[in-house]
Write a structure and sequence with these properties.
- The complex is a heterodimer of chains A (338) and B (91).
- Chain A has one domain.
- Chain A is built from 13 helices and four strands.
- In chain A, the strands form two sheets. A two-stranded antiparallel sheet of chain A has the order 1-2. Chain A has a two-stranded antiparallel sheet with strand order 3-4.
- In chain A, helix 1 runs antiparallel to helix 2, helix 1 packs antiparallel against helix 3 and helix 1 crosses helix 11.
- Chain A is globular and about 60 Å long.
- The model of chain A has no long low-confidence stretch (mean pLDDT 93).
- Chain B is mainly alpha-helical and 91 residues long.
- Chain B has two domains: 45 residues, no CATH class; 39 residues.
- Chain B has a two-stranded antiparallel ribbon with strand order 1-2.
- The N terminus of chain B is likely disordered.
- The chains are: A mainly alpha (338), B mainly alpha (91).
- The interface between A and B is medium-sized, with 17 and 13 residues.
């Protein structure tokens, strides 16, 4: 097995873990204005993700960093082609991060309302734009010998928008199920009801996405060549059903499985392309034309094998230590930090 | 760094300026290379980016970080004026 393939798999795993983890806190941010009825509940929504969201976003940095180091050409093409779109993602992530840090720094209602708007808008924009970006990557970017020929508005094509809406709904369900287990009282019950309603909206969009993928992309080619790969979309469906039929932590883990397998379905379909060209496959960015030297990849593999397990361990540990739900009716001194 | 500059109020405001100017000196001094001796800046420029996009993003960053800096200075000022909180009472 060559290191290029190992790093393609790791590239996929990093994006997958990022969407599973940041998915629930982006979802919680999008839900906050609709699900929280007073200041203590709005605070509880923010506090439930307070200790986790920035750790989750480390996986985004790692995904970007791994793209840079393992597939420098893919990094260059991705960040210069999708420059304006990724800049908007960055602004959105800054807005919600700052909102979480600053909303409790002043007691005034107007101050908190302003940051809650930033929290909502940043979360929603990031979720939508990540979907739009990946939808366009799945269907191919207009790349040829002269480079990229698209525009920001060109990214908002029907398939890109459909993937954007899919991501928003996946994260909303995931976020609602998170709030159902990580908050208490009426807020938690309302979140569980919201998850059921949002699930009904998600199903037709997921079906539309899987169908449109057959026409707008070449992702299924790999699946017809190796039918065993259909396990990934099948597990996505299992997760989708589980997130409705199960409750509590199990439902949350099922919605996580759905996000993981939807991402995996796309990335398996891309192989061996990282950024397929919609103009001519000769200009696609692939493992073989984008990878760093085998020596670089070998060093990176050794480093990843040492540190990724450590990161996974301390993140799991932090979820365990902070496993208690946030009760809006009983604010604790610890909550005030967030 | 002289002893005088490390003491007192002036040093705390000068230090970030020094870090930034050292950074700028390194960037400017390296030109026309982006990776010294290996890659010219002109060869490293992205082909698919327009000047307008770069200008818009620079303006966006300036405005965005400017606003955040203003909010930050406001909070720092307010908290510095207020002084430290009294020790929390045991419930």
């Amino acid at each position: 097995m060559n290191f290029g393939i190992i790093w393609f798999i790791l590239w996929g795993v990093l994006w997958t873990v990022y969407f599973v983890l940041d998915g629930f806190d982006l979802g919680a941010g999008m839900l906050q204005p609709f699900i929280a009825r007073d200041e203590s509940e709005r605070h509880a929504v923010a506090a439930s993700i307070g200790p986790f969201w920035n750790g989750n976003e480390v996986w985004l940095l790692t995904a970007g960093g791994a793209t840079f180091a393992a597939f420098p050409t893919a990094y260059a093409v991705m960040f210069s082609s999708l420059y304006s779109a990724l800049l908007l993602v960055l602004f959105a992530l800054i807005a919600r991060g700052v909102a979480l840090e600053l909303r409790n720094k002043e007691p005034g209602a107007a101050w908190r309302r302003a940051w809650d708007i930033a929290f909502f808008a940043g979360s929603a924009a990031a979720a939508l734009l990540f979907g739009v970006a990946f939808g366009n990557i799945f269907s191919g970017l207009p790349l040829d010998a002269a480079g990229y020929h698209g525009s920001l508005l060109g990214l908002l094509n029907p398939y890109g928008l459909l993937t954007g809406v899919l991501f928003v709904l996946l994260f909303l369900v995931h976020g609602a199920l998170w709030l159902a287990i990580k908050t208490a009282g009426a807020l938690s019950l309302r979140a569980a009801v919201a998850a059921k309603g949002l699930w009904l909206a998600l199903v037709p969009v997921a079906v539309a996405f899987l169908t449109a993928t057959a026409f707008a992309t070449k992702l299924y080619d790999n699946y017809f060549a190796h039918p065993v790969l259909f396990l990934a979309p099948l597990l996505a469906v299992v997760g989708l059903l589980g997130s409705r039929l199960a409750s509590g932590l199990k439902a949350f883990l099922c919605s996580g499985l759905t996000i993981a397998m939807v991402t995996a379905t796309g990335i398996i379909g891309l192989f061996p392309n990282l950024l397929p060209s919609s103009r001519d496959p000769a200009y696609s960015v692939t493992i073989s034309n984008a990878a760093s030297s085998p020596y670089t990849l070998k060093i990176m593999t050794a480093v990843a094998l040492c540190f990724v397990p450590a990161v996974i361990c301390y993140q799991l540990w932090s979820y365990r230590v902070l496993r208690q739900a946030v009760d809006p009716s009983r604010p604790s001194a610890q909550d005030e930090v967030y | 760094m002289s002893a005088r500059s490390t003491s007192g109020r002036a040093a705390s405001t000068r230090r970030p300026t020094r870090t930034s100017s050292a950074w700028a000196a390194a960037e400017v001094g390296r030109q026309p290379w982006i990776v010294y001796g290996l890659l010219k800046t002109s060869d490293g420029v992205s082909k698919s980016l327009s000047t307008g996009q770069v200008l818009a993003s620079l303006a966006g960053f300036t405005l965005y970080y400017g606003t955040l800096a203003a909010v930050d200075f406001y909070l720092l000022y307010k908290n510095a004026r207020q002084g430290p909180n009294p020790a929390p009472q045991e419930a």
